[in-house]
Design the sequence.
């Protein structure tokens, strides 16, 4: 089965968790796109939902496919968010932001009672950090912020390149007008300490460590779809 089919499988199981009338955060990325496509089919058949998108990209797809959307200012408390991830460990800690939407994704997930992560099995890791950690920063003071991140990481025994994400010859700009630094730390043994250290740096707007956000991960793989809720507690 190819990667797209796995994403569709995970998305379709997540769709079963969506109840009529739910206030629903809608994630960003290729897996979230599959969820939007399936959701749109259901909406087309009369299913009602209040969607809150996590990016302009997702908003565009929802509008194109007819999924009703509301700004988070109008729907500030959500029942559920369904989103993809770049990495997920067995404690459901995540690295997100590969698509550059991490700030809005975290705001929407944080406003939701529950967050379900959908992914194919390649996203499961024993320890976070193989995927470069996206850190959203204010363009003002970029060099100073990069140095501060490097110092904070080194206090925690972490090192690696911290690269400004580019879009062609220009820095990649998020929906909020910020830049992204991708930090290749390799393995992050103490994600909580790194999260706290990054949050203390003034130029850091948000980072891609989602700790304590996901309540369930729906993972599609060659042997079927698994639901991860706790370490070592996997149900088919
Ligand atoms: C966007 C994200 C995405 O959820 C993450 O990059 C996964 O994307 P995909 O489903 O395309 O692998 O965090 O900011």
Sequence:
């Amino acid at each position: 089965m190819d990667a797209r089919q796995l994403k569709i499988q995970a998305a379709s199981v997540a769709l079963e968790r969506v109840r009529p009338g739910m206030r629903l955060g809608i994630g960003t990325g290729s897996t979230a796109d599959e969820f939007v496509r399936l959701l749109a089919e259901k909406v087309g058949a009369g299913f009602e939902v209040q969607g809150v998108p996590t990016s302009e990209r997702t908003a565009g797809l929802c509008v194109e496919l007819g999924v009703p959307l509301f700004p988070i200012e109008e729907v500030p408390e959500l029942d559920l968010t369904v989103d993809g991830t770049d990495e997920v460990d067995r404690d459901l800690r995540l690295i997100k932001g590969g698509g550059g939407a991490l700030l809005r994704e975290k705001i929407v997930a944080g406003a939701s009672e529950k967050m379900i992560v959908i992914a194919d099995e390649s996203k499961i890791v024993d320890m976070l950090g193989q995927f470069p950690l996206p850190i959203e920063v204010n363009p003002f003071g970029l060099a100073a912020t990069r140095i501060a991140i490097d110092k904070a990481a080194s206090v925690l025994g972490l090192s690696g390149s911290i690269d400004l994400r580019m879009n062609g010859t220009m820095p990649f700009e998020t929906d909020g007008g910020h830049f992204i630094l991708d930090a290749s730390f390799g393995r992050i043994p103490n994600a909580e300490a790194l999260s706290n250290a990054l949050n203390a740096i003034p130029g850091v707007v948000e980072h891609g460590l989602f700790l304590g956000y996901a309540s369930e991960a729906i993972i599609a793989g060659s042997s079927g779809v698994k639901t991860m809720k706790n370490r070592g507690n996997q149900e088919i």
Q: What stands out?
A: Helices lie at 3-16, 30-44, 56-65, 102-110, 142-155, 191-199. The chain has six helices and 16 strands.
